[in-house]
Design brief:
The complex is a heterodimer of chains A (212) and B (277).
Chain A lengths: L1 H8 L2 H22 L4 E8 L4 E9 L9 E3 L3 H9 L3 E4 L5 H11 L6 E8 L2 E9 L9 H34 L1 H15 L2 H19 L2
Antiparallel strand pairs in A: 1-2, 1-6, 2-3, 4-5, 5-6
Chain B lengths: L32 H5 L8 E6 L14 E7 L7 E5 L8 H12 L4 E6 L8 H14 L4 E4 L9 H13 L3 E5 L16 E6 L8 E2 L7 E4 L3 E5 L3 E6 L1 H18 L5 H11 L8
Parallel strand pairs in B: 1-4, 1-5, 2-4, 5-6, 6-7, 7-9
Antiparallel strand pairs in B: 2-3, 8-9, 10-11
Helix pairs in contact in B: 2-5, 3-4
Chain lengths: 212, 277
């Protein structure tokens, strides 16, 4: 039951949605800062060995989330397997890439920046920024800025995965555990007076259960 | 072939035997780029690209001298196997690295060891097996435009990096431009490479604030791209083969240099030390 306690303590039921919102906000800000056409976060799904669109801002938002592709294909795949950030320009010159991109995302970017999302010793996914304006040559300062967004996105992705793992634990423990978790979530949201009363009630319930 | 005395490990040195240790390199009073690699082509130097494979016949790469691939067998606990590589390059990263080495060291011998492309899962053991193979083969230079963040592999990678260093194999590895722990570039027995923004492919800098030891050209580089073409790209992945090629040039002119001596030559000829600016 220690996993269950941890899951309840993490407030798992409400947190998954919050972390998704945080990731969405990160791609929105990344897109704005770089004045880009789109930005996305891919989560690495270890079980299926695939990359999954987890958050998308700009072009493709609303359609791509949930789409998957093998973990070592595409430029996001290079970045994941090499753990190295990468910028590629003039992509539209390559007909093969253009066709594949159009098939998977609906548009062909001219250029993209991609950076691995690393947290502790795990590679959790990839952050991409597509079609920044090509007025000036790409600079290392931009790469550094992208790295900072990547750190933030990696933390959000780590929290999201932990919340999902906690939810899975709750579901596996069955309906009783789910009821307890829901109770914990309600308790967390309650006003102080109600919370106090609920805790007293819980204490009394505990005493009752201990009696033979 | 019998080993020369200088190639055998020496564990101690008897009194008065200092003369018996042959250094084999006539060091000039001042190490210049001209002495280090002027007129060099990389001829006779064997460079291994440990990456995603190399596209056969890419005009930027030309002929290569061999290609192997590493993959895990089907079962859960299967060992990693080495097979002849017939697939070339599935993603283009290795071809891009090979193209840069070929451009700067046109007559070096290129070998491909494919450790990427078969999925992300289980890529750590494959990387280790590939590096072990490359070190065992005694390549002069191994280009690693990749790293792993898994601490469980750090110790083995460290041993391999040291083995390479003592066996005269230079391991050139991409550093991170983010403050993350990854390997093997952080080890002092490898040559770690970050990017500078200068357009000249032969410009490189020594970094007095490690762990990144050298900066080479990595911004706006025209790289070989799958399908025989080229594309513009930026990343430490492409700074690394610039440094590998410069190592190959130096070694083709001075094959007796140990990795320690080679690092000294690189230091003395870096643009911010004694090299031309």
């Amino acid at each position: 039951m220690s996993d269950l306690r941890a899951a309840v303590a993490a407030g798992a039921l409400g947190s998954e949605e919050s972390y998704r919102e945080l990731l969405q906000s990160i791609v929105e800000v990344a897109r704005s800062i770089f004045d880009a056409r789109a930005s996305s976060v891919f989560l690495f799904d270890e079980e299926s060995d695939e990359l999954v669109f987890e958050a998308v801002a700009g072009e493709g938002a609303g359609e791509l989330v949930g789409q998957r592709f093998p973990s070592s294909t595409g430029i996001a795949g290079w970045v994941l397997v090499t753990r190295q950030p990468l910028v590629v320009e003039e992509l539209d010159k390559d007909p093969r890439f253009a066709r594949e991109a159009a098939e998977s995302t609906g548009f062909v970017p001219k250029g993209l920046m991609a950076v691995p999302l690393l947290h502790e010793d795990n590679a959790l996914g990839v952050l991409e920024v597509l079609d920044r304006p090509q007025k000036a040559a790409f600079s290392l300062a931009e790469m550094e800025l992208l790295g900072k967004f990547a750190n933030e996105a990696a933390i959000a992705l780590d929290l999201l995965q932990k919340a999902r793992a906690a939810r899975t634990v709750l579901e596996d423990e069955g309906a009783e555990a789910d009821a307890l978790a829901r109770f914990a979530a309600r308790l967390d949201e309650a006003e102080p007076e109600k919370r106090e009363a609920a805790l007293q009630l819980l204490d009394a319930l505990g005493k009752l259960l201990r009696e033979r | 072939m019998a080993q020369e005395p200088a190639d055998l490990p020496a564990w101690s040195l008897p009194a008065g035997a200092g003369e018996r240790i042959s250094i084999g390199v006539e060091w000039p009073e001042r190490v210049t780029r001209d002495w280090a690699f002027g007129g060099a082509t990389g001829k006779g130097v064997r460079v291994c690209i440990l990456d995603s494979g190399i596209e056969p016949g890419h005009p930027r790469v030309g002929g290569i001298q061999g290609a192997v691939a590493f993959a895990r067998g089907e079962g859960e606990d299967e060992e990693v196997e080495v097979v002849e590589d017939t697939e070339g390059d599935l993603c283009g990263h290795g071809t891009a690295c090979a193209g840069i080495v070929r451009q700067l060291a046109p007559e070096c011998s290129l070998f491909s060891a494919r450790v990427l492309g078969a999925g992300f899962k289980g890529s750590g053991p494959i990387l280790l097996a590939g590096l072990r193979w490359a070190v065992d083969q005694g390549f002069d230079v191994i280009n690693m435009s990749l790293s792993t963040t898994k601490r469980q592999f750090a110790e083995l990678l460290h041993e391999l990096a040291d083995t390479a260093y003592f066996n005269r194999t230079v391991l050139v590895a991409s550093a991170h431009n983010m403050p993350v722990e990854s390997y093997p570039w952080r080890f002092s027995s490898v040559i770690s490479v970050g990017s500078h923004e200068e357009p000249d492919p032969m410009t490189f800098f020594y970094n007095p604030s490690p762990p990144v030891e050298f900066f080479a050209r990595g911004v706006g580089v025209e790289i070989a791209w799958l399908g025989g073409g080229t594309i513009l790209s930026t990343g430490n992945s492409f700074a690394t083969p610039h440094m590998s090629a410069i190592c190959a040039l130096v070694l083709s002119k001075h094959p007796e240099l140990t990795p320690f001596q080679l690092k000294n030559v690189l230091y003395l000829t870096a643009n911010n030390v004694g090299g031309e600016t």
